[in-house]
Amino acid sequence: MKHSGILAGSLLAGLPGGKLWSWSRLGRPVGLQLFTLFGVIEQDVPGTLRKVASIGYREIESAFSRLPGYYGMKPKEFAVLTKDSGLSWISHHVLGAPFVLPPNAKMPKGPDGKPMELPPMKNLRENGQELIDQAAEGGITYLVCAYTPTGSLDEIKRSIATLQATGEACKKAGLSLCYHNHDFEFHEVEGQRPYHMLLTEISPDLMQMELDLAWVTKAGEDPLELFRRHPGRFPLWHVKDIAKDLQTLEPAGSGIIDFPKIFAQADQAGMKHFFVEHDMPADAFASISSSIHYLNGITR
Which pLDDT score, from 0 to 100, does residue 105 have? Predict the structure, then answer.
């Protein structure tokens, strides 16, 4: 597993005709959320992106890293690098407000076994227009809010106001705003579920959703029911798996999620792009190689 490049080659060589399949029968290329490579990509950004493309990924979604800006670059510089690496840069993650851990939550551990340390990050509440302008400069399609406070009704209402204002500014800049869930947005707060408030109180014209299939499963929600109740609202998906304990994140196909059943409803969901993600894997390249091998098997 340490020789993940060899592993990727051996997995993909086993596909029909020995081809490196990157397009699914859905007509959508397999994407990767670069947070999967947190702590790895910073060591060699160009080399990491080339390796991601060589494994078979064709689209990426960016996030924060230990480097300033966009992996140590300006948006236009990073856009050129991704294109030169054979990748399409689709979306970028930002925070909705200054990050505060939810009650009783702990920072996830990195591959070194130590709690992850977050670098200073700007957020939509305090730096919204700046973040929108940067995303537009990079030429991406979606700006994704990856976190917003939802611990009380007051926090939820303030977050909704921030997201509505962001959605309006994104439209003016030619971007689409999405919200990425964890499991805590489904926990009841004063008798209401924050996720459903975000869905119903913010117009689809201003904000759509990026559904994380592992976190929604951990929360005990049925993604298919969400698709039925809110068709077309989920243009982006995060594809990662979760073990039976509903705690341990896994590469796609290694846990309990029924991905073929979910992908069968991609049109109802309105899915346009999906990104493999695995938070803090022990071996990032082995994980993304395993995930794409599985996904190509069920979607091609």
Answer: 73
* pTM beyond cutoff 0.90: no
147 contact partners, CB below 8 Å, separation of at least 6: 95, 96, 97, 99, 180, 182
Structure tokens at 168: 């309006």
> 276 near 34, Cβ under 8 Å?
no
Residue tagged 């894997």 (tokens): 281
Asked if 241 and 279 touch (Cβ cutoff 8 Å), the reply is no
Q: What is the DSSP string of 87-122?
A: -EEEEEEEESSS--PPTT--PPB-TTSSBP-PPP--
User: H-type helices in 139-212, by residue range?
Assistant: 153-173, 194-201
Q: Where does 32-152 have alpha helices with state H?
A: 45-55, 75-84, 124-138
Give 114's pLDDT tier (boundaries 50, 70, 90): confident
HSE-CB for 104 with a 13 A CA cutoff = 2
Q: Per-residue confidence at 34, pLDDT binned at 50, 70, 90?
A: very high
Are the beta carbons of 73 and 44 closer than 8 angstroms? no
